[in-house]
Amino acid sequence: MNTADAAQLWAEHQVTTLADGAQDWSVPPYGSLAWSQLPPNDPRRFAAVVEAAEQWRRQAAEEERLEQLADDDPDAWYAEVTAGANDEARRLAGRLARMRTLAELNAARTHRPPHQLRATPGWPPIAVPGEPGQYLRPAPSYAAAA
Q1: Distance CA 49, CA 27 (A)
Q2: What count of Cα atoms within 13 Å lies in the side-chain half-sphere of residue 81?
Q3: pLDDT digits (tens, 9 = 90+) for 28-82
Q4: CA-closest candidate to residue 145, choices 122, 119, 116, 117
């Protein structure tokens, strides 16, 4: 067992011992308003201090590990500290690839001439929009060919 494991076990034991027999065991974060409103002899105050110290120890150990990794293997350090950003970039890449570019959006906004309606032989006449009673019919040459 290493020192870090021993410290973690000690902290867990202290909090578990303090919680023994307690009906309401919600430990507010150390230094929070809820923590400061606890009575001075409330065991949850000490439990919050122990939990905060354990969190600080873990953070300091992780920072030390990353500093050592940066010294020993800068490539591995870089890969580790950028892994989250790389995962996020991979997650977004497909969505970004499907998005239209600004040039494509601008081109879609440009005015295009209206579609020319043409009647097709064998289909019913087409009502001309905005001109009630007017219909497009296939040209006579198309009708003769059909």
Answers
A1: 10
A2: 12
A3: 999 999 999 999 988 889 899 999 999 999 999 999 999 999 999 999 999 999 9
A4: 122
Nearest Cα to 24, choosing from 47, 49, 58, 57?
A: 47
Sorted by sequence, the CB contacts under 8 Å of residue 143 that are 6+ apart come out as 121
Distance between CA atoms of residues 25 and 20, nearest Å: 9
DSSP 22-48: -S----PPTTSHHHHTS-TT-HHHHHH
Q: Which residues are CB-neighbours of 11 under 8 A, at least 6 positions away?
A: 50, 51, 53, 54
Q: CA 46, CA 143: separation in Å to the nearest integer? A: 96
At 21, is the secondary structure helix, strand, or coil? coil
